[in-house]
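ok, trying the design again with the full structure, not the truncated one.
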């Protein structure tokens, strides 16, 4: 007697790259005071690494179109680059007071990134640079807004010697979204960046792993995120006016921001 074939197994739950940060604690006020100066060597190293990452991503894009996944060499390098960039940005955004080491794999460092490169949809790979534009706009507004009030955040941490919880939540959300955006851009994940405003309590299958896994945000933390977005939008509108300048030769020059990953440095409108 004919029997119906068994039902197909359900699709696995989409896995998002993870970010683990410790809860905000005391920070050395001297390192807070000179945070940007201390990071200059890191910015130089990160710029070099980002150039290599761009080349590897382009090669990996062609490989992913053929293989349906990143080539091993590309996945290995990018799985080291994205956490490195995230650690530098975590220190820059003052979510941690531990200076990032000049190394790719540092399991003892308090900032950890979880990545699981795997199978990719070839059509999504083909149009990746188009698909990523909305996420690029969101993360651009977020970090532009953060930088607008960055000096206030810096002053608060300098005076208190620690980052207040709402500011930590909002800054961690910016950092995590940026990391997920970069991971999607360089094809380390097929999961589109999401959950900007945090996770639901108990959403982490493994329980509470760190202060950001799950990232449960308070009303004040979410309010700061909305403020970052609004200020980022206002900064972008202002920048579109002020960065179109006419030189002595009447040549119009437009200043635009890059879509590719890199350190979260302030743009022209936040200086």
């Amino acid at each position: 007697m004919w029997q119906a074939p068994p039902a197909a197994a359900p699709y696995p739950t989409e896995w998002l790259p993870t970010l683990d940060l410790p809860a905000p604690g005391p920070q050395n006020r001297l390192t807070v005071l000179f945070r940007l100066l201390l990071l200059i060597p890191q910015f130089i190293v990160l710029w070099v690494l980002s150039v290599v990452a761009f080349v590897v991503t382009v090669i990996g894009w062609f490989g992913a179109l053929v293989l349906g996944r990143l080539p091993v060499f590309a996945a290995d390098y990018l799985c080291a680059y994205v956490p490195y960039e995230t650690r530098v940005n975590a220190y820059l955004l003052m979510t941690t007071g531990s200076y990032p080491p000049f190394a790719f794999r540092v399991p003892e460092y308090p900032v950890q990134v979880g990545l699981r490169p795997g199978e990719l949809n070839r059509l999504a790979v083909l149009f990746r640079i188009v698909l990523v534009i909305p996420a690029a706009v969101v993360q651009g507004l977020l970090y532009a807004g953060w930088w607008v009030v960055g000096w206030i955040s810096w002053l608060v941490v300098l005076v208190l010697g620690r980052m207040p919880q709402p500011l930590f939540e909002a800054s961690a959300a910016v950092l995590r979204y940026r990391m997920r955006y970069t991971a999607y851009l360089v094809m380390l994940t097929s999961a589109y960046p999401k959950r900007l405003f945090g996770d639901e309590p108990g959403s982490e299958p493994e329980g509470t792993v760190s202060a950001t896994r799950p990232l449960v945000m308070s009303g004040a933390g979410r309010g700061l995120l909305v403020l970052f977005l609004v200020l980022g939008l206002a900064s972008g509108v202002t920048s579109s006016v002020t960065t179109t300048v006419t030189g002595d030769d009447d040549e119009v020059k437009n200043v635009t921001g890059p879509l590719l990953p890199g350190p979260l440095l302030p743009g022209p409108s936040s200086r």
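Keeping the full-length input from now on. The mean pLDDT is 87.
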